[in-house]
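Onboarding guide, step 5: your first structure request.
Type a short instruction followed by the sequence, for example:

Predict the 3D structure of this protein.
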Amino acid sequence: MEQTYFRRGFGLKKTIEPLIRAEYHSALVDRIRARGYEATFGEGERSTTIRLAEEFGFCYGVDRAVDYAYETRTQFPERNIYLVGEIIHNPHVNRRLRDMGVVFLYPDEATGEFDFSAITPEDVVILPAFGVTLGDFHRLRDAGCILVDTTCGSVLNVWKRVESYARDGFTALVHGKYYHEETRATASQVFKHPGGMYLIVRDMAEARLVMDYIEQSPGALPRDAFLEHFREKASPGFDPDLHLGKIGVANQTTMLSGESLAIAAEVGKSLERRYGRSEDRFRSFDTICSATQERQDAVVKLVAGPQGPPDVMLVIGGYNSSNTNHLAVLCAKHTTTFHIADSTCIDAERGTIRFKPNGSPADAPEVEAEDWLPEGPLVLGLTAGASTPNNKIGETIERVLRARGVEVDEEAVAAV
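The system replies with structure tokens like these:
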């Protein structure tokens, strides 16, 4: 009987490694990293010092997901291969998979549901690093197709927490973006147990609405208004009068860790004020993934460390990447910061840059700035989201240097 579920790849890493390296590697980034994450190009008024965060770019989970996708194409060269959503939130990686013949499946805009009706037992379906909802997983299993599951291990750890909350009768309060693939998949884990409930909050302000309701504060939303506000952010059948007495807090793994921890602490205090101290009413675990935390810590060190902040900070990554957006927000507290998708956002001839305003929604339009690079010697900081390959970072560095009138060739790269 043919095996139809794979989570550990196909043992083809050595086969695909040369291709992965050729497509996503950057010699320039490697050289700067080897020199202590800092290098200076040019002289005098054109002197440009590049400072890299000590953790940036592809994390283990993303590396694994991309590797498995490439292995899948190699393992099944003649089969139809589908991908539920996007493998990661990086347009270049996703475009490359399309070039390899992988068909992307997107949910219906009106219903939010995927249509798997065309999938047959002969087909291969890749599950993305964010995971899929419990319902979508069961539907794909029922289709009898081959599943290649690239769900990140950090996401799976959160799922276990959420499932345990539902098992023990706690409502899962998830700090995340309700429309994000990972958050939807995480929240759905409550359905492994009858009566499992979830509620999703975007930030502390939204968490305050929940806490006010718990404490029956004078300014709390009335029941109907509360249900309307959280209509798309709560499990079916959720009743705030019944399901806010026992809460377990979890989070989308790429949220700002400080905010997640603060929300958990405040929700715990709120329950204590309403019901008194009791371990039977509140649970919380820090479920920010280690890679997200390391990248946030590294960028804070770069912009708020003893050297002082760079003159300008570039954050590179997909505009719909949650962890990239949070890196930009952190940097903007300390220095001029531009979140760009890639090097093509920089026009060296015109002296302009296109970027996503920090903290704006994923679908916010780009804006353009002129004369964004100051005159004279420059210190430029760079980091990148966990879905951004090194070649895109290297291309950005080269584009900036050319905008500064500093030529970069292979000899210059080797000499860094």
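Each response can be followed by summary notes, for example: The chain is about 40% helix and 15% strand.
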